[in-house]
Amino acid sequence: MKEEQIIWAAARSALESSQKKNRRNGSTGVRHWELFEKLLHVFVWCLKILGFYGKGIENALSIDVNKLNLEFPNLPKSFEQLKILHLSDLHIDGNPPIVDSIIAKIKNEKYDICFITGDFRMENHGSIQAVFEPLSLLVNQINAPLGIYATLGNHDSYLMAFEFEKMGIHLLNNESKTIQLNNEEIHITGIDDVHYYFTDNAINCLEKSPLGFKIALVHSPEMYDIASANNYNLYLCGHTHGGQICLPGGKPVFKHLYNGSNYFKGLWKFKKLTGYTSTGCGTSGIPIRFNSNSELTFFTLHKEKEELES
Question: Rounded to whole angstroms, what are the CA distances from 279 to 19, 235, 264?
């Protein structure tokens, strides 16, 4: 690891040990995950009594494949039709069969690069070992010539970074990478989780990013305004699961956002910034979904066509 990443790992370790939420507004909060888990157990019991639990599991394992074409005025010509595979919120150790579902969806697809925006683990504490075997199986089936880039989520540990490197995942922790094709380039910025583990380094990284076409990878949409202010073109994130358990019509019971709650799901725009909040592949807390589908997403980027003169 580079010196900057060793410093990042030390800081992240301290934040994880504190068991507190570090928020962007400077406040800290206590995690109430144990209480939330107790409430989930009661909810699961109710679902089983009513006979809906099996349907919830079935919903969670059914992954939608969404395909979007996006246009940008400043996309370099060499990156015309760049195809991105976006995965988020795998929570892969909590429901390993999800790997087979994802592989089945991507095996006949062609894409150039893969982005994974955090939450590889089901719990937000404890052992990380159960993540690596199913993740390795998935990574081995991802055929992305320009590489696999990822960020960590609020469920993840800094200790994952070492294993991810061995797998060939380029983990971006408040840093930017440049991808070149035919002497043209785009820039990928990965921000460490800002929902639990916010530090000013997240803002500094966005502010000091290179000029040109830029893509921000952040676990949650909570940095949308800072990315926009620093001329990012595309913002990819997840975290919310689209609510995971929603009321009829897809209205979420919880969004789990401190900022950017309007951008909890799907394609959105903020000024000149185009964003997409994935509903994620996996589930958190309990392996079920209602009125919010799992998804993986393919984006094809295009240079915006100039309007014809009248």
Answer: 26, 14, 8
Q: What is the pTM of this model?
A: 0.92
What per-residue confidence (pLDDT) applies to 3?
76
Burial readout 121-144 (b: 16 or more C-beta within 10 A, e: otherwise) = bbbbeeebebbbebbeebbeebeb
Amino acid present at 57: I
Residue 38 confidence (pLDDT): 66
- Which pLDDT does position 160 carry in this prediction? 95
Which tokens hold the place of 190? 């990965």
CA diameter of the chain: 66
- Token pair of 215 as six digits: 């893509």
Average pLDDT, the chain: 90
Residue with tokens 């590889």: 120
- Domain 3-303 sits in CATH at 3.60.21.10
CA–chain centroid gap for 69, Å, is 19
Average pLDDT (306-310) is 45
Q: What tokens were used for 263?
A: 């951008």
E-only strand ranges, 91-203: 113-117, 148-151, 169-171, 175-181, 184-190
Burial class (CB within 10 angstroms; exposed 0-12, middle 13-18, buried 19+) of 194? buried
